[in-house]
Amino acid sequence: MNSVVKRDSGRQGKMKNFWKRCRDSKFLLLFLLPAVIWYVIFCYTPMYGLVIAFKDYTISEGILGSKWVGLKYFNKMFNSPDFLNVLRNTLVISGLKMIFVYTSGLALALIFNEVRIKSLKSLYQDISTIPKFLSWVIIGSFMTQILSPSTGIVNAIIKLCGGESIYFLANPKWFVFTLIISDMWQSAGWNAIIYTSAIAVIDVALYEAAVIDGASRWSRMWHITLPGIIPVVIVMMIMNVGSILNAGFDQIFNLYNPAVYSVGDIIDTYVYRQGIGSLNYSYSTAVGLFKNVVGLILVMGCNKIAQKFQQVGFW
Amino acid sequence: MRNMRYDKFSVADILIHVFLVIFSISILYPIYNVIVLSFCSYDGLLQAGTTLVFRPYGFTLNGYITFLTQDNVLAGYYQTIFRTFAGTFASIILMSMAAYAISKKKLIFNKFFTLMFVITMFFSGGLIPGYLLIKNLHLLDNTLVYILGPLYNTFYVLILRNFFMNIPESLEESCRIDGGNDIQIFWHVILPLSKPALATVCIWQMVNHWNAWFDSMLYIQTPTKQVLQMVVRRVVYEQSDLSAREGISFIQKGSMPTAETLSAVAIIVAILPIMIAFPFFKKYFNQGIMLGAVKE
Q: Is the ipTM beyond the 0.95 threshold?
């Protein structure tokens, strides 16, 4: 036995080991092959295509043939009031969503926890997750009707109370508000699921001890339930900070219009209009690259911080 | 729940239920309203005076007939159904194969491959390079993009991988002792045991395909190759277009549909399968989020 081990640990042994491992993995590598091909073609090739952010790309010249211009488009970007406005919108909308949308999920979970009748609780929970399965094309259509200044329900109620109708989707003052509320409507139920699962793990004995000590329902929620899920709440919040530059392209693209570009245009919609609309391929790519790099740094940083809480690592 | 058998029924309970009922209505009523609207006629709505309806005024199937007989609508249905089933099927098979491979420690270069997949979750080429790629692959206006585009989703691959990693080695080994190779182990041992995870990923992917519209908008020009959501988008946001382009003047009067009822029909047609499937599949949606959020 000993002599065999000695022989295999030399350089020749390592080579033999390597080929053995290759042979052992041969079927697994076969399984992996389509995936590798797909990722290289559909994920890594476009990453190489990012290089056009540094060139004056034209379709006829192709990527290699286009002229190198270095940071020209990045300069254009940082000096463009349009872009700076778009960046501001993105951060504002994302920030507000982080505060309200994720809080609403938490609040909803806490409320669900207080429902006594189990069957009703399940029913409420299930209904609340329905909007998550509707695309923003659909939700947008609902909203266009409900918020219509002439025939919509909401404005009918407003007029009944003596006010004037508000064109929610076309009024810059109200557009962001509408975005936040509709996002809350769509995702509160879905976000609540994670918190509900976290609440279920809290030790029942804690509640029983609190009741014996005379704690009220509100007191129990504030001092037991909330602290019990704070780790999950924090981890979710941190992970969402990482995606602060994604303010919700799907939603905004389906709801916005030129009247509200000043407040509703976010980085992704700007990239879309510049690239696909105005055919400024290089500029659009530069903006996209900026967003991706900053986003990457944010996500990595946030994941490191979240890991410190020793809960959810990402992979 | 368990902590509440000590409390008396109080005002708080009533408020909670009131709030939850209102919230539930805010979700259910728009859907109900749209169902009812889709059966309304021009005369009926005129009589009702508002779109806030509870029953079909002037019940008619004309809305559906008008909508479904437009050329591109049935085509849209076909595209969406095709991509949902073919795309999901291809995805599930390929993703589970890849997930199985990286779940095995013995795989050579395992860390490299895993990293290769994970990086794509955090960084991508972006919109324009993606568009140029499709263009250079000559896939523009080719419905194959519907299947190839979403083929692999790293998040789902990781969910499957984590699930596979939790399957006891002993099961695998007993198959190996019987002379099985990796492929047979995968097919006869791993897959049958992974039904919950596979079902969850399968359903999520189906919903993704069903609701997809942006790739259709970006890469496809021919109207007959567009997906259902794009057709809905056209009908709802560009109502005047529909009658003008199709050359059909659907006269808005009598028992014919109005612009609103036609939008309602479009919406119903798009969400019907999801609404029907929802009660059956909600279990999978919910458990899936936990599979993804908790690291094993």
A: no
